[in-house]
């Protein structure tokens, strides 16, 4: 009779998430994940082909979390300002995970950039204020606001600056205005 599985795929993903969120991708190993679950590494390799397979599943989980719980929160009514505020709040409130995903060399790097651009682009195309923008304008707006939001988020996680949401909102509106003036005039709420 086969042994009943006591550790599920979701439990492994949750433990992997916890390792990355608290210690970064440099600690993303089967041994560290197993230690978090207080078991051997065997259940990990029964559920996932290898660590790359587990990392892919973890990124899917993280992308789902960001796209359903972090990025869509509305603060100001301006989609891009809200995205920037949500990104900065994520950086501040979950600084270790933020660093692991966006700043560490072991993290998602290009993959997180592509995910963030895809989320931004799709959201902008559905927003009444920005839906007439073409791909070049969307790319320009994303690049400019991403740089500003990443700068703010990184400096906040390092404890170097502590701007208020209102200050961040003003900075983002000015960034949007400056970027869009090069493309076409736009009214910023």
From TrEMBL:
Residue stretches spanning the membrane: none
DNA-binding region(s), chain positions: 29-48
Highest taxon in the source lineage: Bacteria
Keywords for the protein's UniProt record, in alphabetical order: DNA-binding
InterPro entries in alphabetical order: Homeodomain-like_sf, HTH_TetR, Tet_transcr_reg_TetR-rel_C_sf
Pfam families linked to this entry: TetR_N
Domain HTH tetR-type stretches: 6-66
UniProt xrefs under PROSITE patterns: HTH_TETR_2 (PS50977)
Protein name: TetR/AcrR family transcriptional regulator
Organism: Enterococcus larvae
């Amino acid at each position: 009779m086969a042994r009943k599985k006591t550790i599920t795929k979701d439990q492994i993903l949750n433990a992997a998430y916890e390792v990355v969120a608290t210690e970064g991708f440099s600690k993303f190993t089967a041994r560290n994940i197993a230690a978090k679950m207080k078991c051997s590494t065997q259940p990990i390799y029964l559920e996932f082909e290898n660590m790359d397979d587990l990392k892919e599943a973890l990124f899917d989980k993280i992308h789902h979390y960001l796209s359903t719980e972090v990025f869509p929160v509305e603060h100001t009514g301006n989609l891009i300002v809200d995205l920037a505020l949500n990104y900065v709040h994520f950086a501040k409130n979950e600084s270790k995970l933020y660093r692991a995903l966006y700043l560490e060399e072991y993290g998602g790097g290009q993959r997180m950039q592509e995910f963030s651009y895809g989320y931004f682009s799709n959201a902008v195309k559905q927003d009444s204020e920005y839906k007439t923008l073409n791909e070049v304008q969307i790319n320009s707006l994303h690049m400019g606001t991403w740089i500003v939001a990443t700068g703010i988020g990184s400096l906040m996680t390092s404890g170097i600056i502590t701007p208020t949401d209102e200050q961040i909102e003003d900075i983002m509106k000015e960034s949007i205005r400056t970027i869009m003036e090069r493309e076409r005039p736009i009214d910023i709420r």
